[in-house]
């Protein structure tokens, strides 16, 4: 412990503990008092310059002699950002999405600004970074990062989907096919997904389902090869990618009740972002390029400027 100091001659405020510890009347150092005074002056100046004091007037608060507002500061910062963005925005206004992709500098800009648009308008359904979302009936919104596309993965296809939206269509077969036929064709569809079409065609266990598939209207939409038709948005049934529940029971439900065909049907609807008026043409182009750059976009036709 430190040595005890004799402070018997120092006046105190009268607060003394154990005859050793007391509140002395010594003044603080001058530098400390100067700092305290400067701090007080700064607080007064700050409160006068900026809006800070609630007072009873028409505006409900003292605006400050400096005229500063958070909105003015935001607008000033925004004008700086808009000036930087201006040259890019002017270029992409009259360009096609394919032409934007052909310009590496513009593609970099669009990809960065498209991220914000995607988060605000698309991520709620398609998930952060386009990973898709799942609900009780299967994939609620498709994955945008793979190369499986119902309506086509070329840049113009993606742009068309965002502009006009998409609404899946599949007729319900309950009442058209018997329960046994629905079970048979579901077995065949599942076999095609797991084994490939050639093996499923040679599998006698699902021969009855193949017969139903070929003789009903399944081939009209999914094609004789069951690989689907992008013009119609019909699914490829020979891969392992499922828009809805890919279990046997899930397939049977889709076959029985269809898609967007009634209260028990699967739901597959994407709104039109142009019709909704939420996004400008330039913003839709940005989103199309951003989604394409996830990595699943398909090679496009020659650039149309």
UniProtKB/TrEMBL annotation:
Its cofactor is heme c. GO terms for biological process: oxidative phosphorylation; proton transmembrane transport. Residues 109-193, 204-295 form the Cytochrome c domain. It holds the Pfam family FixP_N. One of its GO terms (cellular component) is plasma membrane. InterPro entries: CcoP_N, CcoP_N_sf, Cyt_c-like_dom, Cyt_c-like_dom_sf, Cyt_C_IC, Cyt_c_oxidase_cbb3_su3, Cytochrome_c_Oxidase_Subunit. GO terms for molecular function: electron transfer activity; heme binding; iron ion binding; oxidoreductase activity. The chain crosses the membrane at residues 31-53. Pathway: Energy metabolism; oxidative phosphorylation. It is found in: Cell inner membrane. Keywords: Cell inner membrane, Cell membrane, Electron transport, Heme, Hydrogen ion transport, Ion transport, Iron, Membrane, Metal-binding, Oxidoreductase, Repeat, Respiratory chain, Transmembrane, Transmembrane helix, Transport. The keyword Membrane applies. Belongs to the CcoP / FixP family. NCBIfam families: ccoP. This is Cytochrome c oxidase subunit III. It comes from mine drainage metagenome.
């Amino acid at each position: 412990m430190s040595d005890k100091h004799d402070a018997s001659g120092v006046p105190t405020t009268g607060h003394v503990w154990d005859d050793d510890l007391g509140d002395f009347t010594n003044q603080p150092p001058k530098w400390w008092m100067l700092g305290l005074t400067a701090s007080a002056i700064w607080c007064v100046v700050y409160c006068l310059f900026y809006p800070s004091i609630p007072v009873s007037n028409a505006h409900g608060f003292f605006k400050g002699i400096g005229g500063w507002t958070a909105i003015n500061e935001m607008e000033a910062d925004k004008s700086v950002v808009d000036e930087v963005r201006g040259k890019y925005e002017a270029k992409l206004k009259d360009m096609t999405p394919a032409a934007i992709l052909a310009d590496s500098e513009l593609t970099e800009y669009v990809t960065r600004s498209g991220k914000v648009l995607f988060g605000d308008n698309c991520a709620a359904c398609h998930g952060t970074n386009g990973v898709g979302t799942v609900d009780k009936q299967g994939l609620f919104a498709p994955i945008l990062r793979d190369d499986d596309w119902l309506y086509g993965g070329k840049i113009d296809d993606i742009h068309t989907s965002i502009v006009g939206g998409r609404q899946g269509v599949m007729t319900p077969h309950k009442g058209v096919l018997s329960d046994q036929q629905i079970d048979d064709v579901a077995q065949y569809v599942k076999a095609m997904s797991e084994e490939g079409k050639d093996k499923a065609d040679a599998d006698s266990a699902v021969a009855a389902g193949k017969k139903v598939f070929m003789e009903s209207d399944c081939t009209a939409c999914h094609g004789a090869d069951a690989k689907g038709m992008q013009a119609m948005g019909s699914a490829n049934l020979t891969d392992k990618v499922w828009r809805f529940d890919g279990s046997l029971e899930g397939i049977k439900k889709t076959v029985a009740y269809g898609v967007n065909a009634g209260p028990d049907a699967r739901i597959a609807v994407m709104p039109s972002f142009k019709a909704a008026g939420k996004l400008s043409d330039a913003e839709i182009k940005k989103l199309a390029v951003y989604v394409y750059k996830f990595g699943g976009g398909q090679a496009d036709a020659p650039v149309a400027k």
